[in-house]
Amino acid sequence: MSWLILNTLLACAENPADLSDYWYFRTDGVDLPVRVEGNLESGVILLMLHGGPGGSAVDYNYGYDTDLLEDAFAVAYFDQRTQGGTHGNYGTEMLTIQQVATDTANLVDALRDRYGQDNQVWLYGHSWGGMLGTATLLDTDADVDGWIEAAGSHDYPLNDVYTARKFITKAADVALQSTITEEDAQFWDEVGGFAGGLDLENISESDSLQLNQYAFTAEEHVELASSDEFGSGLLRYMLLNPTVKSTSWWSGLWGGNALNDDAFTTSYTPRLGEIAVPSLFIYGDLDFVCPKELGEDAFNAVDAQGISTDFVVLEASGHSLMVNQPEAFAEEIITFVDTWGVPR
Question: Selecting from 3.40.50.1820, 3.90.79.10, 3.30.240.20, 1.50.10.20, what CATH number does the domain 22-155+225-340 have?
């Protein structure tokens, strides 16, 4: 029986690509765990910027989209300071968007030092990772070859406005439907009333948090696409997760609160036109957490500068679009990088 269990674990852990490397990177008083997996022969490394703040890169290292991306490229997953499996001793003055962006820029250099200077490095950020990636592009001298923002928030104040407007519109649409369940009708009436009562020019931090909570709950009241591949990836995640979830949750909560305080008033929208690398913005049509309008804004600003860019909306996806439609999600990324990636 033990032989069978061992073989099952090994089968779940098998990576279809050629590289699997785990190491720690020290930067400004913190040791960040880095896991690099996939096809390094491609000459492209996608540096995954996980969501949160308060999450972990492990959460992005098990899905079917991951297998597809790692077949095409190498993917580097790392936990941001205070989050996941990071180690270090520092105060809250080191928990700023600028500091985490500096960590990311330093890691870009370390990836090339370890795997070769000729490799392209693309930033790939989801949710909060959209803020971090934008900050890294605009506020550091990171030598980055491209940018993929997946359901990202590079502008917290505007994000709240777009979420509130999406709630108001959805609530009005639902009110006209005769076949909706009583539970759904009550939910949309509640969130529509809450959003409709906000002063969109002056949303408080507590109202912002409430909007965010409603936005995640909203995915239980819409019809999202689902993939048959999700179950096997979830099993691999549960069995082989290298982080202690209770520890990472507590440390991530502390660091996440400090970073959210910084992000609450941070808006990169006026500076999006400064992005000077090929950029893909991919969002879910049913995402209330980071609405697609954020991606459209970014696309318009970068495209206006003559930079190679694209804006993709996955119609049946919410905030976790890589889980809802992993094949379509990965295909868009692979096609864009293959088209616009320039060998160094």
Answer: 3.40.50.1820
